[in-house]
Structure formats: C-alpha cells, structure tokens
Amino acid sequence: MTTTSISVAKAKSHFSELIAKNQYSDERFIITKRNKAVAALVSLDDLKILEQYTEKQGLAAIAGKWQGFDEVADAMGEIETLRANGGKGRDVSL
C-alpha cells in the first residue's frame, strides 16, 4: 500500500481518479494545502480499522479506571483477537 501527497487543487480536479485508485489499488492520499497535510483519502476498510481502534481506546480508558474490573480489560483483549481472526477463536464470555 502506498501513500501519495497531493494538493487540494489537484485532488479537486482528479477526485474520481483518486477514488478509483484508492478503491482498486489500495493507494492512500494525503491532501495538502500550501504543503501542509490537511486531510486524507483512505479506504473504507482503513476507516473501519481506525474507528475500531478509537472505540477500543475509549472503552479501555473507562475500564482501566474501575477497580476490580481487570476481567473487562482481558475480555476486551480477547474481543480484539476475535476481530483480528474474523470472529474465529475460542469462546469469550464477559
């Protein structure tokens, strides 16, 4: 997977092409304005991974503040393993 920087102006004029490259060749794009990164064009799969990571960080932060809830953190780690394995693995009970 490659990442390419592209100006806002060029991104606007080649938007359809960038989406196709992103979708079919897994190319990511960093969109710049005056040579400063301001946005990114990533695949839906990448976005889902980012959202899961953010969600997990939020839950882990909450669980870490409760005394005696180590099993919650352990279960969350096992859930992450299940996600990584496509839902296949040993049974996890909360």
Average residue pLDDT: 78
Structural class: alpha+beta
Number of helices: 4
Strand share of the residues?
15-25%
Main pleated sheet: 3 strands, mixed
Report the uncertain regions.
none
Q: Round the Cα radius of gyration to an integer and report it.
A: 19 Å
The counted number of beta strands is 3
Q: Assembly state here?
A: single chain
Structure characterization notes:
Strand 2 (28-33) and strand 3 form a beta hairpin. Helices cover 57% and strands 18% of the residues. It is built from four helices and three strands, in the order βααββαα. The protein starts with a strand and ends in a 10-residue tail after the last helix. Helix 3 runs antiparallel to helix 4. The mean pLDDT is 78. It is elongated.
Relevant terms:
single chain; 94 residues; alpha+beta; 3-stranded mixed sheet; 57% helix
Write a concise synopsis of the structure shown.
This protein has helices spanning 8-13, 15-25, 44-65, 70-84, and strands at residues 3-7, 28-33, 36-41. The protein has 94 residues and is of the alpha+beta class.
Give the secondary structure arrangement, pairings included:
Blueprint lengths: L2 E5 H6 L1 H11 L2 E6 L2 E6 L2 H22 L4 H15 L10
